[in-house]
Each structure stands twice: as structure tokens, then as C-alpha cells.
Amino acid sequence: MEALETVTYAGTKKNVVESGMVADTPAVAAPQKDGEPWKVTVVLEFPRDTDPFLKSTVKAAEAAIKYYCARNEEGGTSNDVEVEIKTEFKSAPRPEVGQMLPGVKNIIAVSSGKGGVGKSTVSANLAIALARLGYKVGLLDTDIFGPSMPKMFDVEDERPYAVKKDGRDLIVPIEKYGVKLLSIGFFVSPTTATLWRGGMATSALKQLIADADWGELDYFILDTPPGTSDIHLTLLQTLPITGAVIVSTPQQVALADARKGIDMYRNDKVNVPILGLIENMAWFTPAELPENKYYIFGKEGCKQLAEEMQVPLLAQIPLVQSICDNGDAGTPAALSSETATGLAFINLAQSVVTVVNRRNKEKPATKIVGMNK
Ligand SMILES: Nc1ncnc2c1ncn2[C@@H]1O[C@H](COP(=O)(O)OP(=O)(O)OP(=O)(O)O)[C@@H](O)[C@H]1O
Ligand SMILES: [Mg+2]
């Protein structure tokens, strides 16, 4: 126990004894024959099997006991003692891939090739519009390095709490505008997250999916980062995505990237159906001249791409100052059915419901991408 008092558990920043992790009094067995080592068995209890400090704590405990024994015996060496550290967990294990969200009916990834074309704006408004149509909706901000949802929902200061369910501690999503919401933005400052390695981002994302109490959902919307990244791969390896909607502006460079996004989902190892395209910033309409349309990023580029790729064009959303202002103010346009932009998002939600129903009738459920492919 004295040796274990020198081992810090990074989860509490206290030693493992103080942290209450030493499950039983360590067992110490003397050697049966000369030359054999002493045997020390310790049981350490961690909060859960996915504890990020598990391996390092076990190694440190082993080293500390060996060092302690060698130091306290004259002429002793660390080989005089054999240490076995057993691990136990307070929390039941996380469900296997494929069984993570049993109450979720449809999972929709909102994607684009290019950054800044309006994925997060579309995700927030689509989620709110679906909730206003009476569906149970969850929204996960998977943009670990640039989360936008806390601001768009005006819940930047909220901190989700945890509940105990079936022996596991689960994060409770924040509920606003009828939507259950989680984002890494609730847990870390953006400057910290940008320093993360890929593995840390992946593990945080998995926690937001599998260690959260999403419950029953008709639609689970995933706002994804730009491009085709590690995050996308993790999503494809973790969840059976019902379909993807691709957001693009009508501009040629955005369309070229949208094509790459479509190709990723259509790859024969991925096979996630494309539910349709959304043309965002389709034209600019000044508030004082509502009849005027200015095609500043080009005209109907997404319509042409949709025809070429044989996917539906689900909506054309104009570039309107209020969409940007509403996003920044945390009151997305879809909250109102009285404005043209609010209606555009409600119509989009209705189109999404139609294409998802058709997809579910015509195609088998998506298979999760295997780890080695
Ligand atoms: N139709 C629109 N009219 C006006 N402003 C818009 C519209 N769509 C998006 N915006 C604004 O454009 C900016 C980028 O949008 P958004 O953050 O939704 O894009 P994104 O594709 O999620 O970006 P990223 O790739 O960085 O995640 C935001 O400031 C948003 O408010
Ligand atoms: Mg975004």
C-alpha cells in the first residue's frame, strides 16, 4: 500500500490509494523455493474499461511495487518480486459496435467536400425543423476541432451532466428547441481540442456517441467537419449511417469537392446512400428587395451536379443575412415558419423524411465499415 501511495492516477490527480482504486488488500506470497520471486497481486478498480489512464497507471503501479521491494531489501533487485496488477471496472462495458444506439431509427450525416459552405447551419436548421414536424431528433456536432453547435443553439455555457443507466455513467445531451444536442464544445475549449492527436479526437467522438443517453430517436443528425477526414472514417466504422446529405454552394470549386464527398460515401467499401444535395447560398436576396435574386456563386450548379450524380436536389437555400445573424445569435431560422428562410428549412425537413422513407423501403440497412478495410 505504501508503494501504491506513490502512484498518481491522472483521472483524479491523487494517488491510487486515496482515489479508492485499490479494491482489496494486496496479496503478498513468499517464495516456495529458493531463488523464486515474491509474488504481489493488486486489484485496481477503474471507472470504466475505456479509461484513458488505465495502461499508464497499471505500468506505474507495477514499477512502484518493484522499486519499493528492491529498495527495502538489502541487495534486493526488482527481479526479486513478480507483480500482477488485475483490473476491475465500476462501470459496465460499452456496447459493441453495431449495438451502440439501439433506440435510433435513422442516422443522417451532413457532409460537404469544402469547408464553410453551410453544413453546420443546415444541420442545426434541419434538426430543429424535424423536431417541429414532431419527430424525436438528436444532433451530434462531430467537428471535434471546430465545434459550432453550442453557439448556434445559444447553449455555450451549458455543461451536460451524467446519469447512471444499466450500470454505466452516460452523458445526458442538452435539450434545446426540441433537439437533443451534444458537442465536444461542451467539454473542452476550442484551443485545447485543436492540439489533440487524431486518436484523442476519435476516442472523444466515440464517447459522445456510445457513452451518451440518446434514447429513442427518429433522426440522429451528424454535423461533420469539411472534407473526408479521420472523423468520417470513425463515424463509418462506428455507426450504420442511413444516408448522407451533401451541402454545397453552386460555385465550381465547391462542386468539385462535393463530388469527392459523394464518392467517399459511394465507395464500394462504404456504401452509404446519398439522400440528396442541398444547394446553399443558391442566390443572394437583399432584405429590402425580396424579389431580386443575384447568383453570386453561379446559377444552379448543384442542380446540375444532382442530375449528373442521379441524386435528388433537396433544397435551394438563398444567401440571406438573417440566416447568418440567426446562427450567430443562437436562434436558427427554422424556429420560425413565418419567414421565407424558416419555411425553406421546414420544406427541406419534409423532403428529407420522404427520401429517408423511400431509401428504407428500397435498400437494405447500411453495414458498418470494417476496421481493416
Ligand atoms: N444561407 C446562408 N445565408 C447566409 N449565411 C449563411 C448561410 N449558410 C451559412 N451561412 C453562414 O456562413 C458561415 C459558414 O457556415 P457554416 O458554419 O454553417 O459552414 P460549415 O460548412 O459548417 O463550415 P465548416 O466547414 O467550417 O464546418 C456561417 O457564418 C453561417 O452563418
Ligand atoms: Mg461546420
From TrEMBL:
SUPFAM superfamilies xref list: P-loop containing nucleoside triphosphate hydrolases
Residue positions binding ATP: 113-120
Xref: InterPro entries: Mrp/NBP35_ATP-bd (IPR019591), NUBPL-like (IPR044304), P-loop_NTPase (IPR027417), YlxH/NBP35 (IPR033756)
Gene3D superfamilies: P-loop containing nucleotide triphosphate hydrolases
This protein's UniProt keywords: ATP-binding, Hydrolase, Iron, Iron-sulfur, Metal-binding, Nucleotide-binding
GO terms classed as biological process: iron-sulfur cluster assembly
Top-level taxon of the source organism: Bacteria
Pfam families: ParA
Molecular function GO labels: 4 iron, 4 sulfur cluster binding; ATP binding; ATP hydrolysis activity; ATP-dependent FeS chaperone activity; metal ion binding
Family as reported in the entry's similarity comment: Belongs to the Mrp/NBP35 ATP-binding proteins family.
Known function: Binds and transfers iron-sulfur (Fe-S) clusters to target apoproteins. Can hydrolyze ATP.
PANTHER family: IRON-SULFUR PROTEIN NUBPL
Assembly behavior: Homodimer.
Protein name: Iron-sulfur cluster carrier protein
Biological source species: Xylanibacter ruminicola
